[in-house]
């Protein structure tokens, strides 16, 4: 009966049959919260000798047949033309967004894929929440870098941020500044990369080199000349490293 009711709700949201009133919106978000927001199961230890992140099959949530319908209802509610953002923002609020972000650590890739789509749609519809969503995503990254060193949803969150950055309008607002949109920012970004260059982790060094290559493609001559000397000093250290391996030429 519960499943059938949820399917009917999804059909109703798709039908465009009328406005979602404030009272209905409050009830909808209550139902969504009760069904989605939960404690995720303990993560499998990445330190175990037998664990291989690339070889291991993802952990699939046995409750997914139910959760999928709830996520579909949330998605249809958010994108519906009958959902007035000015009304719905009272219930799809900052706390709701934070709870969604917590679910990005789910080991089930199907759940993370839905979350990625839904959060991006929320970002598009609820303009008032945009600065908060960007800051909240950054906080997830900070916790990943400085505290937990593991999080299942980093790739999906980076995809969302990539789409958000691509949509920034010119001229850039102060909080929207990225090298891809303003080449003058290449100098401080390159200097930061050089400042925090990995010393003991060759895998991270390879990632930094890849990022360096992408930023250099966006760098204009005046900015390049300002970082040229420290940049080539760092590259010289890489060439002299015991881990150095020559790259094959691109075809």
From TrEMBL:
GO terms for biological process: signal transduction. One of its GO terms (molecular function) is protein phosphatase regulator activity. InterPro entries: ARM-like (IPR011989), ARM-type_fold (IPR016024), PP2A_B56 (IPR002554). One of its GO terms (cellular component) is protein phosphatase type 2A complex. Gene3D superfamilies: Leucine-rich Repeat Variant. Pfam families: B56. Transmembrane segments: none annotated. This is Serine/threonine protein phosphatase 2A regulatory subunit. It comes from Haematococcus lacustris (Green alga).
